[in-house]
Structures are given as C-alpha cells and as structure tokens.
UniProtKB/TrEMBL annotation:
GO biological process: cellular response to oxidative stress
Organism: Bifidobacterium jacchi
Keyword Nucleotide-binding on entry: no
GO cellular component: cytoplasm
Segments crossing the lipid bilayer: none
Span of domain Nitroreductase: 8-177
Coiled coil start-end: none
Protein's UniProt name: Nitroreductase family protein
Domain of life: Bacteria
Entry's Gene Ontology molecular function annotations: oxidoreductase activity
PANTHER family in alphabetical order: FATTY ACID REPRESSION MUTANT PROTEIN 2-RELATED
Length: 200
C-alpha cells in the first residue's frame, strides 16, 4: 500500500533547521532531478526549473536576502525579527530555488494563441506541483523544509550571483535541513466542508 497520503501529512512547514542531512548532497540533487522530470505540466511544456544550493552558495543566497531586506526595513528593531528568520533559513543544510522558464510560456502563447491567456496560469500550476512534490520527497527522506517568497525583491541579485538565464523567473525558495524543533499541530478543516461529491 502506498504511503503517499501519509507522506503528504508528514510534509510540514519546518522553520527550525540544522545543517545536518540524513542523505548525501548527491542524493538530494538526484531526488530533485528525478522529481523535476516526473512532475507533469500542461501540454508537456516542462517550464519548471530548479536550482539546488549547498554550502557557501546557500549562505550567499541568504546573505542576498538579508542585505536586500535591510535596504527595505529601516527600523532596527523590526529588522531584528526579520534577520532572525533569515538566519534560521541559512542555518539549514541547503535551499532549493524554484523557477519558471518564461520563454516556454511565451513560445506556447505564440504557437497556440487560442490558449494564450491560460498559459501563465498553467505555468503556475506546474510550479506549485513541483514545489509540493520536492517538499514531500524531502520529508520522506527525513529533511524538513518550508516555502519562502522573497521574490521579486531578490531576483536580480540572485540571477547575477549564480549566472542564471534571464528568462528564468524566481517563484519560491525552499530552505531544508534536519528538523531541530518540529512544527506544532495545525487545525485542518474537515474534508466534508471542502470536498463535495455527486452521483455516488
């Protein structure tokens, strides 16, 4: 019997992370690669892109976030809380950056104009599916993670730092690592309030 639903339940927003990992960096990269190839997309367009950061590269990312937000948050007291959050993400083992290759969507819009208005939404669907799939796969391997959105503030600096294509649009950042302090329980609305069934 598949443990898919249980894996989804175990996938939580974990904010207290350590730099440890129960699997090797190579295994993490292979996991992200395999999931990226397996996750579907509209018209099999495959606009999803991912970047995996470890070590110094991971620290550079979170330094960019910190420096960028420091320019936006002028109040020193308020920035302390922001800095604490960023430091917690930087304390993890690594980060997955999720991107949408906008050239793919533009090409689809040109080649299939009848669906032109829909393709940006289809790309967001594909991005969300990849994020959830990677998040769940990491949890299955004993790695906690959370999904962050410091884009678009950090987009230009991150693109320049890592030499990424200009057509790649940053969607989310996923810091991951061994969980230092598990997330507490959360309330879930009952399924019967959220799922309607007809014809059964």
């Amino acid at each position: 019997m598949s443990n898919f639903v249980e894996d989804l339940r175990n996938r939580r927003s974990q904010y207290a992370l350590t730099s440890a990992s129960p699997i090797s960096d190579q295994e993490i990269v292979k996991l992200v690669e395999d999931v990226t190839v397996a996750v579907p997309s509209a018209f099999n367009s495959q606009p999803q892109r991912a970047v995996v950061l470890f070590g110094d590269a991971n620290q550079k990312l979170w330094n960019i976030v910190k420096e960028t937000l420091r320019k936006v948050v002028n109040d020193d007291e308020k920035f302390k809380a922001t800095e604490g959050k960023i430091n917690a993400f930087a304390a993890g083992h690594g980060t997955v950056l999720f991107y949408d290759d906008t050239d793919v969507t533009k090409s689809l819009q040109e080649n299939i104009p009848a669906y032109a208005a829909n393709f940006p939404g289809f790309a967001r669907d594909a991005a969300g599916m990849l994020q959830l799939a990677v998040w769940t796969a990491l949890a299955d391997k004993g790695l906690g993670a959370s999904l962050q959105h410091y884009n678009p503030l950090i987009d230009e600096a991150v693109t320049a730092e890592f030499g990424l294509p200009a057509s790649w649009k940053l969607q989310a950042q996923m810091p991951f690592g061994v969980v230092a302090q598990p997330a507490g329980p959360v309330d879930k609305q009952p399924a019967e309030d959220r799922v309607k069934v007809f014809g059964l």
